[in-house]
Amino acid sequence: MTQLLTAPPLPATASAPRRFLPVLPVVAIVAMMALPVSGGGDGEGGTIADAVSGLVVLYCAIRLVRDRRRPLSRTAAVVFALPVVGIALAAAGAASPGAGITGLVRYLQIFVLVPAAVMLLIRDRRDARLVVWSLIGLALWQGAIGVHQYVTGTGASYMGEEIRAVGTFGAADVMGMATVVSFGIVCSLGLALGSGPGRQRTVAAVCSLALLLPLALSFSRGAWIATAVTCGAQLALAGMRRAVKVFAVVAAASVILVGGLGVGTAMLQERISSITQVTDAPDQSVTDRYTMWAAAVDMWRDQPLTGVGLKGFPDHRDGHASLALSSGSDTEGAGAGFKRQPLLSPHNMYLLILSEQGLLGLLALAGSWLALLVCGLRRLFRARRPASRGLDCALAACGLLTWQLVDFAYADIGGPSTALTAVLFGLGAWWALASEEAGDR
Fold first, then answer.
1. Each residue of 337-361: pLDDT tens digit?
2. CA 102, CA 111: separation in Å to the nearest integer?
3. How, if at all, do strands 161-164 and 336-342 pair?
4. Strands (E), 186-259
5. Alpha carbon distance 265, 273 (integer Å)
6. What Å distances lie between residue 74 and 19, 71, 433, CA to CA?
7. Given 3-state DSSP classes, what are the helix, strand and coil percentages for the chain, each rounded to the nearest 5?
8. pLDDT digits (tens, 9 = 90+) for 131-165
9. What is the pTM of this model?
10. Quick one: how far is CA 149 from the chain centroid?
């Protein structure tokens, strides 16, 4: 029978560098996120990580040709082919060929090509753990820079003070560090709750607690919500008794950081309370967000099946948005001067797809994401059995998928950290769609 998805395992005597050689290109994508962002980090143009991700796809294709093996199972082929239909239709309906091609390449990169390559290059749990630990290492690096920015007042501008932790992503991508740190928390919590060696679980638990501080100092409400929901789900899936213990530790750590040490107490309380201030007294950022959401829905009503075309939201925004929408958001600090950042997306991935790709595109893309999550959870429940292995990888992979799908309600693709989204979906696809033997090795 033709082997699917996973390469033959290397002999146990293989050296460590050779053992991990196939998955090292995936780790390289993560490592590129540690470098400072050039060009202001406004998301225009490609980044080094994008270039590396393209090389990873090429590397994976060469390995497939050399090994002469069938790359995808029937289920995996359907899951990855499903988004292509809606993306291609929306590209054909774009306002210009250039916009259509640019959007097509970007969507295929993030949701099809790179995830498929990552899935194929991860062969077993050891490879998956290496990718997970690389995400944790990146989160610790970016988090440490973010805390230093807060302490020294060299971060992005927030309420007139340059204290917002943004890591190396700059003031133009304030969600970048928050996203990376959130990935680190989800990954470390998954390893801590898994069935791995005791030392690994202890180190992972310490990392997850340490990353709470930079996440708080990012002042990112969407990342807070997604992380809280995901960690709660991970704890529930790992067992309620353990969940109660972890909640107690997290609560104690939060009291020490915020109550005892006074870490950003007033600003954090105001930021947290603003989450519920949607109708009473919303700030301008909340008003802009909901105004753009309404505009996206209005665009969809005009073109319900296929949308206004890829990259079409900015061109149609003013014709559908109310006067409550501001002209842009102010960015400053973290080594950059004052800049007015235009609002070119609804900051909601589902509504962005709905407005630009219509109902067909949303069903295709969201359907593929949901299929990954459902398949991943099915394997996670099997991994909870006493004789099974891989619960740590299952909690990390399903946790990352859950985080991204929740965060997509408050954010969309764009910015230097977008390449990590492709790695996330690839890791989730490996757990959900790879052969059972790959998850057990």
1. 677 777 788 889 999 999 999 999 9
2. 14
3. unpaired
4. none
5. 12
6. 28, 10, 10
7. 70, 5, 25
8. 999 999 999 999 999 999 999 988 888 877 888 89
9. 0.89
10. 23
